[in-house]
Amino acid sequence: MNHVVDSAAPAWFPDADLIESSRIMHFMRWLRAERSLAFDDYDALWRWSVDDVDAFWCAFWDWSGIRSDAPRGRALVDAAMPGAAWFPGVRLNYVEQVFRHATSAWPAIVYRNEAGEQGEMSWAELQRQVAALAASLRRMGVARGDRVAAFMANTPQTVVAFLAVASIGAIWSVCSPDMGQLAVLDRFRQIEPKVMIAGDGYRYGGNGYDRIELIRALLRQLPTVEHLVLVPNLDRERTVSALGRPADANVAAGGARWVDWVDAIAGNADVPLDVESLPFDHPLWIVYSSGTTGLPKPIVHSHGGVVLEHVKTAALHLDLHPGDRFNWYASTGWIMWNCQVAGLLVGATLCLYDGNPSYPDFSALWRFVGEEKVTFFGAGAAYFQGCLKSGVEPREAADLSALRVIGSTGSPLPPEAYRWILDHVGPVWIDVISGGTDFAGCFLAGVPTLPVYLGEMQCRCLGARVEALNEAGQPLIDEVGELVCTAPMPSMPLYFWNDEDNRRYRESYFDMYPGIWRHGDWIRITPRGGAVIYGRSDATINRHGIRMGTSELYRAVEDLPEVLDSLVVDLEYLGRDSYMPLFVVLRPDTPLSAELVDEIRARIRQALSARHVPNDIFQVGAIPRTLSGKKMELPIKKLLLGQPLEKVANPDTMANPESLAWFARFARERGVEQG
Fold first, then answer.
1. What CA–CA distance (Å, rounded) separates 534 from 480?
2. φ and ψ of 95, to 5 deg
3. In whole angstroms, what is the distance from residue 551 CA to residue 199 CA?
4. C-alpha triplet 339, 343, 346: angle, nearest 5°
5. Was domain 120-279 assigned CATH 2.60.40.1590?
6. Distance separating alpha carbons of residues 431 and 319, to the nearest angstrom
7. CA distance 193 to 150
8. Engineering a disulfide at 667: which of 424, 580, 614, 672 sits with its beta carbon 3.0 to 4.6 angstroms away?
9. pLDDT digits over 339-355, tens only?
10. For the structural domain made of 539-669, what CATH number should be given?
11. What range(s) does the Acetyl-coenzyme A synthetase N-terminal domain occupy (predicted)?
């Protein structure tokens, strides 16, 4: 394999061995042998997968060996959106698919945190702990359909807890332990959990954060919680001292009793795992929208839909093989944690890293990747851009000879970050994906049989009829439009919890184009079948009738060595003059001089057009970001258009809530009327 830097030519292309050994090639050979279906290239395969949805998913089910209690019939019996009906009569369980691999010789999980604590868990031990915790939950009265809320970090215990909850047909929901009290309550109050599983604290950036008092506060306001299972992440003796002996002490006014994790997973290895057989559309988990405005949307996905979508993505679009070592750095508050756990569905080893990926330096996570011989390493695009800016040299920090794939998501990965990976990590396959919490899957991703072009995702995913539409609903090629999906996918939400008549669900995705999923991103589909995401469509720059995604402006601005981060908002509003300010974070001790302002303007004018040069440029200390690292363009836009701060942003869902104060002051100084 090799790469070039001419963006008009492939930056990377696969060699013959990779193509032939890939799982997607195995699938295509199987289709030829078992279904008499031959496809000349990926585009032909994709078109068949979206033109004959039923045939594709039935074939994929058979090829991948999905387990169920009865032979599957048709895949799609009602193609309405929302409301599609999949695999009627089929009964299965996510956990059953995981433990198809229970006899594997390689580890199920390897783990390390930033303090250097590490461990390894075999498949047999994972199964034992899941069985023991499931039995404990049943003794607590947890039954099919009950909700179990988790307040846990990216650790093996969280994986065990999820699988135990899912095995008995209860519904899982997790929040990251760095989230604030109101953010957690906004989520868990809606679903009325019966049991909470929580860590006593977490570590990040060299510090330990005790969460015992926060857990007490949560339980006082979650009266439906009857039991707390407490995981001693920081100090078990301190926890016992604070709460009293397990099972003897009420930890909240509501009367919830606490159980120690060690006791909850104590069990005999000979006791079999009792997995509930569930309908295809039985709820698996509840995940949430970003929650920056209003109450978060509690989104319910199904066992069957998630199994199909995640096995498809892991096997065909990430090319994960049994025994691969898979790390996607994520917090439990991000859907990528769920997607990371999906590695178990295809027999990969999960390589979990908990803590700050750049502590004590930007090489920390790369050292973990090298020492654990990770074969697939994924992270948010912001992480790779941070590495680029910091000057880290991954190949000097670690032996990356086992690494063959880099994955990225969360925000658009600019061409220079692709180039940095190829130059500083190695000639690896760059597999950039784009999807969302909303359907727990990917619309766009890669395959190891296609070349990689700088700044461009390789393909639309199999089974995902993704298009770019203009405002009139007409499809576009090589022009920017709304990202839509015009046919159902199995992992689309069953419903939102407590959403009467699916009203909120419909308003969220089907308001602009009835019967068509509108995702809220600007996309350009290239003539060769790849795609480029330009950012959220509701944060798009619209200058003089010319629309532009913000990612292109960021690429131009952040290419300057003085600029660490930036945010732009177009304050075009009916009855007001259009005004577009740009906010920049500069390197320490770097002032926003007149010369630098001129340079930024020149870069934008050159990269985009004169129309897209901002009216003003301001230096700020930090750009507001969500916990998953996304720039909060829309909340800042709403704030500067006059909406009250408390209505546009929830500090508890932010990575840096202190950054809001500057923007609130800026709005007041500009005389923006709040209302």
1. 8
2. -65, -35
3. 37
4. 130
5. no
6. 10
7. 9
8. 672
9. 999 999 999 999 999 99
10. 3.30.300.30
11. 42-97
